[in-house]
Each structure stands twice: as structure tokens, then as C-alpha cells.
Amino acid sequence: MNQFDYHAPTSLQETFDLLDTYGEDAHLMAGGTALVLLLQQGLVQPGHVVGLRKVNELQGIQRLDNGGLQIRAMATHRQAETSPDVQAYCEALANNFARVATIRIRNQGTVGGNLAHADPAQDPPPMLIALGGEAVVANKAGQRRIGLDEFFVDYFETAMQQGDVLLSIDLPPLAPGTRVTYKKFLPRTQDDYATVSVAAALRLGADHTCEDVRVALGAAATVPVHARKVEDALRGQRLDAEKIKDAAALVRDEVDPLDDLRGSAGYKREMARVWTQRALQELLDAGA
Ligand SMILES: Cc1cc2nc3c(=O)[nH]c(=O)nc-3n(C[C@H](O)[C@H](O)[C@H](O)COP(=O)(O)OP(=O)(O)OC[C@H]3O[C@@H](n4cnc5c(N)ncnc54)[C@H](O)[C@@H]3O)c2cc1C
């Protein structure tokens, strides 16, 4: 690992000043679970590491006045998993955080670090996309909101630029009656990254008519995939097992998986179809 100076700012302003002073030679650190591996492998070689642990503005989880939820960047996965506010907002979201790695990683790794790291096989991104989340990002010039649909731009790459800090993930209020699930296909070990994962949110009206639906997948391309074709095939339809099977088949054209040690691209494409169908069928059956 190369030598670097470690800085521990206690405010956002101090963080922006450090990023401004050291420019490209500075790298942010949250829990360090991903960054330390990158440092050890020499994949990043900053002269200055800026630790966010003491930055007050980045801590905590809270309900928003509009009924939504704000998860600030330095909240750990474990804090999110056990937070009464997350559980009250959406139990499936709390369960999603519980699917990240092992408890040691969840105690150390942060939600902001997870999103900024942008590994396409991570668990929270598809779930947060299915819930319509936005990233709140700031630099010394000001603050902006980026829909999570646009936040992930390529393999391990986000829409954030040098000097940006991810402040929080803001989720809109969940419409009453919305059913939500997360399926993580893990043929190897329970604490592995997903081979394919699917998050789905479904709101049904009378006679099982689909009033709204959102579906997103992880480990199915270089970025999390928002499965809009599947959604379009379901919205406004009276749902049954056949409609769900036909719509789930469309996900094959939306994903673009990579061959890796968890399976071939062809296998993952088929698993994306299977797990999308299972997730949607589970939500349909949940009210039966
Ligand atoms: C053994 C192991 C198993 C894992 N398994 C899973 C799994 O099953 N599912 C899963 O989802 N994840 C898994 N992970 C990934 C884990 O969730 C991430 O490593 C973690 O969330 C990253 O958070 P961190 O706080 O440690 O970030 P760090 O390692 O500190 O930072 C990661 C990157 O994000 C940047 N960053 C951090 N915070 C901010 C911020 N606020 N603003 C801008 N940039 C920022 C850093 O500069 C760095 O580039 C695993 C990791 C390990 C080591």
C-alpha cells in the first residue's frame, strides 16, 4: 500500500476544503471495507485519504416530513437493517440491508460507500431503485439530486465527479398497500455476492389490476438494471400467473450479464427471468 496522509474532517465544509486543496490526489473513505482492498491492490494510490466518520451531517436515518425516508451516507448497513424508521417505512428494505455480506461487514460498511463504490452485484442499489430513490450529492459549489436510475453510469462508476460527496439517499413516501420484495439468488454461500438479484415493488387495485410496479436487478449488467419493459407489460393489466410469466420473459432483453465465477452470461440471463417471475408472483400471492 502506498503512503498517504489521513485527514479526519468534522464538518462537510472542512471536507469540501480538503477535496479542493488536494484535488485528484484526495480520496474519500467511509467504512473502508471496499477502499482498503483497492489501496492494498494499488488500484487507487491517493496521497491524501479523507475519512468521513466524524462528519456530523452524514450521520443518521430519519423519516421525512412527506412520509419518505432519508438514509444519510455514513449510516452503516447494520444501522439501516435494525433502524425502526427503516422497518416502519418498508420491512423489505430493512431485510435487504440484512442480506449484505456478513455482520462484520455490515457493522463497518456504509450505505453511502456501497452506492459510491458502484459494484453492480451489491444488494442495496436495485432495492433503492425499485423504491424510487434519489442520491443527494454536494460539492463546494452546491447540492443536487440524482435519481438512482441515472446515478450508476458504468462498471464501478457513478455520476459523481471529483470534489463531490454523497450526502444521503432520499426515498419518496411508499403508497399505501405497496408490496415489496428482494430476491437474492445465492447458489454458493449465504454471505456471497448475488449471482442475480431482483427487487420489486407492486401496488394492486381491484381485481388484481396493476396500478404501479417497479422492478430492478443486480448482478445482471455493468450497472443495476431498471427493468422498464417488464413494468410496461404489467402496468394497467389484470395480473395472473400467465401475465407475470410473459412479462418476466422480457427481462432477458433488458439485462446484459457478465461471465464470471458465479456463472456464464447465458445462465445469469435465464436466472434473471426466473427470479423476476418468482419475485412478482410472490407479490401477487402476498394478498391472497
Ligand atoms: C468481504 C466482503 C463482502 C461483501 N459482500 C457484499 C454483499 O454481499 N452485498 C453488498 O451489497 N455488498 C457487499 N460488500 C460490499 C460492501 O457493501 C461495501 O464494501 C461497502 O458498502 C462499502 O462501504 P464503505 O463504507 O466500507 O465504503 P469505503 O470502502 O470507505 O468506500 C468505497 C468507495 O466509495 C467512496 N465513498 C464512500 N463514501 C462516500 C461518500 N459519502 N461520498 C462519495 N464517495 C464516497 C470511497 O471514496 C470509495 O471509492 C462486500 C464487501 C466485502 C469486503
The CATH topology of the largest domain:
Uridine Diphospho-n-acetylenolpyruvylglucosamine Reductase, domain 3
CATH architecture of the largest domain: 2-Layer Sandwich
Classified by CATH, the class of the largest domain is: Alpha Beta
Q: Which outline best applies?
A: globular
Bound molecules: flavin-adenine dinucleotide
- How much of the sequence is in beta strands? 15-25%
> Using only CA atoms, what is the Rg?
19 Å
Note the total helix count. 13
N-to-C SSE series?
EHEHEEEHHHHHHEEHEEEEEEEHHHH
Average predicted local confidence, pLDDT: 96
Number of strands: 14
Main sheet overview? 5 strands, antiparallel
- Ends distance: 56 Å
- Widest beta sheet: strand line-up: 4-5-10-6-7
Uncertain regions: pLDDT < 50 for 5+ in a row?
none
**SS class:** alpha+beta
What number of domains?
3
Helical fraction: 25-40%
How does this model look, in words?
- The structure is a single chain.
- With 288 residues, this protein is α+β, with helices and mostly antiparallel strands.
- It has three domains: 5-49, Uridine Diphospho-n-acetylenolpyruvylglucosamine Reductase, domain 2 (2-Layer Sandwich); 61-171, Uridine Diphospho-n-acetylenolpyruvylglucosamine Reductase, domain 3 (2-Layer Sandwich); 183-285, 2-Layer Sandwich (Enolase-like, domain 1), CATH 3.30.390.
- 35% of the residues lie in helices and 24% in strands.
- The longest helix is centred in the last third of the chain and has 21 residues, at 265-285.
- The protein starts with a strand and ends with a helix.
- 43% of the residues are buried.
- Flavin-adenine dinucleotide binds next to strand 2, helix 7 and strand 10.
- Flavin-adenine dinucleotide binds at residues 27-35, 52, 73, 100-101, 105, 109-110, 112-114, 116-117, 122-124, 160, 165-166, 193.
